[in-house]
Every structure is written in structure tokens, then in C-alpha cells.
Amino acid sequence: xxxxxxxxxxxxxxxxxxxRTREDHRVHLRQAFPGCRCVLGGPLTNDSGQMIGTLLxxxxxxxxxxxxxxxxxxxxxxxxFQETRLTRWNWTMGAPEPTASPPERxxxx
Length: 109
What we know:
This protein has 109 residues and is α+β, with helices and mostly antiparallel strands. The protein has a single domain, classed as Dimeric alpha+beta barrel (Alpha-Beta Plaits, 2-Layer Sandwich). Helix content is 27%, strand content 34%. The protein has a 4-stranded antiparallel beta sheet. The C terminus is likely disordered.
């Protein structure tokens, strides 16, 4: 299955919105979704460590499945992002071995 990288950059002055919706976002990343799963992810930060965006690595059957997964993310639903990008990615270095089923729980995202 192909991989996709999602990058979302937060709107200015949106720290309160990010913090208010963060737990729902984290739940969403761990839920089963048709044709897509989140493999890795975490917040993007500025040099001071303040969260300013989101980076996700998605394994998806197709771009449409990855886009649908991102569109249902509480961050997206609540208008957190000023800018987004979804790019197909050829994961080579450090790529996981293919598995028959996704892991039950992902790390801290």
C-alpha cells in the first residue's frame, strides 16, 4: 500500500484551538478508517518548542482514502490549519516491513 505525508500548518493565534481539540485529534488517529491508517505522526514546532502544525505518515489504498481520513480529523473539522499538503511518499529508509494487519495502538501523536 502506498504511503502519504500530511503536513498541516496552524493558523496564527490558534494555540487555544489546538489544545482544545488535541485529545479528539489523537483519538481520531487511532481509530479504524476504511482504506487508511496513521502510521506515525506528531506536532511540528517552532524553535521555542511551541506547536505550530501537524505531520502525519499515512498508509492508504489511495490518495482519496488518505484525504478523507485527514478531512475527518478534528483539527481539520475545526479549522485549525491555514495550509495543508498531502503528498505521496516512497518510504525507503527505515520503512516498516509489510504486515497483514495494522498495529492496535499507535505511539504518542
